[in-house]
Amino acid sequence: MNFILDQHAAGASATWLRRDAAVGEPHYSLRDLTELDGRLEAHLEGLILAGAAGWDLAVEELKWQEPGEVFVVAALAIEAGDAEKQQVAFQSVDGSGELRRALISALAWVPWERCLPLADQCLQRDDGFWRYVGVAAYDLHRVDPGDRLVDWISDDDETVVARAARCVGTLGGTDLLDRLGGLVAHEDDAVRFHAAWSLALRRGDPAAVGAMTEFALSESSFSGDAGRLLTSVMSIDQASRLINQLAQGGDAQLRLATVLSGHLGIVDGIPWLLEMMKIPQHARVAGESFSRITGLRLDQRPLEGEWPTGFVAGPDDDPDNDDVELDADENLPWPSPEDIAAWWQTHHDRFAAGVRYLLGWDVSDPDWQRKILVLGRQRERATAAIELAIDDPQFPLMEVRARGPSQIKTLGCGRLPTEEYRCNQLESGPASSC
């Protein structure tokens, strides 16, 4: 029995860590995410069925002070609706941003009816962090808090204000957008960014777009999110100028320019992407951008290349090497620039200038956006969700990190297709049904 419980405890924390990364990785589809969620649910259920023994083991694992273990305890406590257990979960996150994020992830994981009482309790606390947690719960579940959102935007804690400003954008509707205008010039970066993000997303507000442009060029932690949204809300000419400006910067900005070229989705950038594929540190992300535009899969011969001789990315076996940063592109295929260029030479005529493409089809087509949400991979799905929200300011932004079954219900899907069928359906474009 102890061995089985140990497996469930270790499996639950490890699976959550895998899921936490998977929601933003390039090779996970909704089907993959749903299967991963099924494994996580099975491990949590095993601990729940064990009763006190399962709970005690989960609490014991908190000694490691790792986010996976915090998620497990928090999910069990919230699901149980037990105030004492919830207090244990709350006390486990003091002082660590990663542990706090795991707690918020647990609030997003449980059904809303379980989350609601705890979210409202958090909103009554004096500590601004806990009010932030409460706002985040409403935001992640896409539940409209009504007039309380006005109060949250005026909170005396800047983290609460920032999350509330974000919530205005994710929930949709235009009633509160005017209240964000003054926050675009706020002295706090997070408040300024999230207010500008919501206004740019829902209204294309020029001042907000200007603020987002500053973030995109700043090499701050917000630069990537800012740049990705800007490629959707700016005109093609404006976005192209932003990408060109980034491409003149250092390695981080050059990488972002490569990413944004794929997000913008126009064929004008393809010759440059083909050149970037020849530079090892940018090759894989350039290949991803090419795939985003054209829909061409690079994980098959002869389009997939080899790891370049002498190139190092991610941690290695050298005990004297202090660089332990993970390879950000480890799940992307290595492109073969010559073979991809030959394919482009043969097929470029089917792509028109001045059109933004996502996986080979016009990203502005709402049928294609919805099809990508069902069949695309996570990064592509995030783009489709943004495009839908821009097209309909009243439409809540689809949370592509939510539990798989919840997303399937929101999208009105039946069964999700196999990988082969998924790829075939994407190749056939928006006209065919899922």
UniProtKB/TrEMBL annotation:
Domain of life: Bacteria
InterPro entries attached to this UniProt entry: ARM-like, ARM-type_fold, CHP02270
Membrane spanning stretches: none
Gene3D superfamilies attached to this UniProt entry: Leucine-rich Repeat Variant (1.25.10.10)
Entries under NCBIfam families matching the protein: TIGR02270 family protein
Official protein name in the record: TIGR02270 family protein
Species of the source: Stieleria maiorica
